[in-house]
Amino acid sequence: MATTNTTNGITLKMATAYTRVFYYGTTGQTVSVSISKGGAGFGAPSGGATATEIAVGFYKIALSTADTNFLGDLAYSCTAGAGGPATWTDQVVGQLFTDLSITGTGLANISSNCKQGQPLNGFSFTMTSTTTGAPLTGLTVTATRYIGGWSPCVNTPFEIGFGDYAINLAGSDTNAPVVMYRFTAPAANDVNVVLITQT
Question: What is the pLDDT of residue 173?
């Protein structure tokens, strides 16, 4: 009577290629592999229906992104002329905890348009008249920033229209958790802006 070998299921990230190793137990076999995605009928993996032998009863299957493109159960049935069969079920998920990136100080890295010490292009603001309060065009704007003291920003602001201006902030202009910026021009109100950056 054949013995069923059960490989422990693991968590796989959706639409990601994997080399899935499993234990069949009997060496020298042509092991046929079928998979079922989300309770659908069994069929061959996209890379072919035959596993590759590794050694000492272990074999492997090359799963493509097409094999892992469905959330939920991914079941396997592996058979050969002798030994086995081997069956197990993996779980396909959208995200893995190991995708989380941690800094050297134990903080979570996050995606952000405003990263500490990184350039930030197109940072925009509006300049207004000291007499009317209306937006002013045609100004030559001076930009300074406060990081432990006031100093000029690396780049010069430029007009984008209708009294609105922008500046491409350099990495040295964003190199603090909190940065204060001041934009000044003759006949215009000062503009003070606080920027909170992400580490």
Answer: 98
